[in-house]
């Protein structure tokens, strides 16, 4: 497994999840620029790119028609967009067919923490491994808010996990998805990943890899493919995120706004899957959480990324840097690919809420750690919600 990445103000865009942070190439620009107007979706399913963004892309030699035609595969330094305001993800209809989804089993690298045996911050003893258990199929009934995230990077197609979350601007009709920052952005060594698409209840029936070979797309993606038309991660992840040392991990989260690849019924993602989790930005201190549940599609051996798993455990504390927030840590045998998957615990009202996401874990597996959500995470979340509040 590998690492995972990125405070006070919110702001950046998309990220990719896995148990090790992906470092795929050099970055190109300052991450401090704020996002431009969000792209909107047209009736033909294509994402409309704001004119100001088109001009900036044009100045850098990026033609969106050529991009859809295959230019997105160009990962040259000047083509790998880094700035938050330059996030683009135009829909390429049919790109994520059932074969490409099945074969995209490479998790992005997640940050591997340094030796944590010292006494910086507050770190509890390493937890005993908890064996991940398979989620009962159909997943749409057992874990309706969970799904799989697909995207492309310099090393090929990759996968993470993600969760449908509530949108305060659109109660009951959310199109927001929560994942890890390293599942959308490569951190300080790179830029935004491409062709980000969320598939709720991926492989809903829990079919084996062999059975999936001949499964129709309706079984692989029963609720369709939802493309990210906007994404934000923390400035800390973009500036610090790295595949070693756990740099940026306490800020390793991202929020996507998605739109269906096909026009569909006009229903929101939340209406389509029938669920969306609230996000708790004031979760109880670690000692006060009796247990939480981490969910994801682990893809690194001994798993193959095709089935949904969960770990239920009481969390402990993990401090990577005394100046950064202490992270949650649980014993769990899930591997890369589960990155970005939601961590759920009951709040003071007794109702389940998302309190974190899988960010990092050791190369040998056995435990996972996730960021504790606070003001910075809320800023990222509120930023995406407000951007689409009038749409």
Structure notes:
The chain is an alpha+beta fold and 391 residues long. Helix content is 14%, strand content 23%. The chain contains nine helices and 18 strands. The chain has helices at 51-59, 64-68, 98-103, 139-142, 209-212, 217-220, 235-240, 269-273, 375-387, and strands spanning 40-41, 47-48, 112-113, 133-134, 146-153, 156-165, 176-179, 194-200, 226-233, 244-245, 254-260, 292-296, 309-313, 316-318, 327-332, 342-346, 352-357, 366-370. The chain has a six-stranded antiparallel beta barrel. Strands 4-13-12-16-17 form a five-stranded antiparallel sheet, with no helix packed on it. Strands 14-15-18 form a three-stranded antiparallel sheet, with no helix packed on it. The longest helix is centred in the C-terminal third of the chain and has 13 residues, at 375-387. 54% of the residues are buried. The model is unreliable at 1-45 and 114-120 (pLDDT under 50).
Brief rundown of the structure:
The chain is an alpha+beta fold and 391 residues long.
The structural class is alpha+beta
What's the order of the H and E elements? Answer: EEHHHEEHEEEEHHEHEEHEEEEEEEH
Please mark out the parts with pLDDT under 50 across 5 or more consecutive residues, or reply none: 1-45, 114-120
The share of residues in helices is 10-25%
Alpha carbon gyration radius: 19 Å
Sum up the overall morphology in one term.
globular
Distance between the termini: 39 Å
What is the beta-strand fraction?
15-25%
Q: What's the mean pLDDT score?
A: 84
Strand order across the biggest sheet? 5-6-7-11-9-8
Total E-strand runs = 18
What can be said about the biggest beta sheet? Answer: 6 strands, antiparallel, barrel
Number of helices: 9
